[in-house]
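mind reviewing these tokens:
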Amino acid sequence: MVVQGHRGRYGAWVVTAAVLGVAGTTGCGAEATTPPDGTAAVRNAADVLARTGTARARTAMEMATGGTRVTIRGEGGVDFRNRLGQLLVMLPADVTGKAGHRPITELLAPGALYMKNRGAGVPADKWVRVDTTSLSDGNLVTGGATDPLTAAELLRAASGVTYVGETELAGTKVRHYRGTTDLGRAARSAAPHARAALQAAAKGFAKDTVPFDAYLDEDGRLRKVRHRFSYVNNGVIDVSSTTLLFGFGTPVTVRLPPEKDIYAGKIAG
């Protein structure tokens, strides 16, 4: 898969293209009775996170093609109140067995994705800035990790929610819900900082419907969410993206780079 991540003067390519252009898979499980508050709890997850403030995050984006499965992993912190985040995204070794790309530092902000160690001719001390509202996936796939802020906003349009059961995540009891969300309706319901990116995604994905599995703790905080996207790129590509949230209240400091540190040249494909 070769997907262009920015169509402006920078010519930046998505992180996923640096790995393979591949499709993801996901599993299934038994469903149980839906609690009366299941839909409301899932739809309110983004608001609960905003009130909570900050959290640590781990991400995994699973893709497969030609019998080869690849997972791109990320780790960092998110400030849900100030709508900022930072992830260190690790690209795996390629299919030839060579070492993968150096970890990419990604800064998440409303309408923007900043990447350092982007490669492709970008100086080591420079950042690449991508306008996420111009991306056909709204940065749900582009950076190799779904922005945790946007992942939560997607749940505002949750429907058909079923209660799968109670389980544990890292020793914490959580309720597992399964359902679908709609990109277009999520964009209309989203907070202003996420609305434009989701509107772009609603136009670029193969399907508006996005299946999800969400895990909420007793305080209604989103602990884990898995989305399954269908992306159009010379055919339909399925991607499974998982976000884990923990360490709520941990200080998270995100400093966006000054203009002088942003690369203004062209990036190789």
The first helix runs from residue 15 to 19. Residues 39-248 form a domain with the outer membrane lipoprotein receptor (LolB), chain A fold (CATH 2.50.20.20). The chain is about 15% helix and 35% strand. Residues 1-14, 17-34 have pLDDT under 50 and may be disordered.
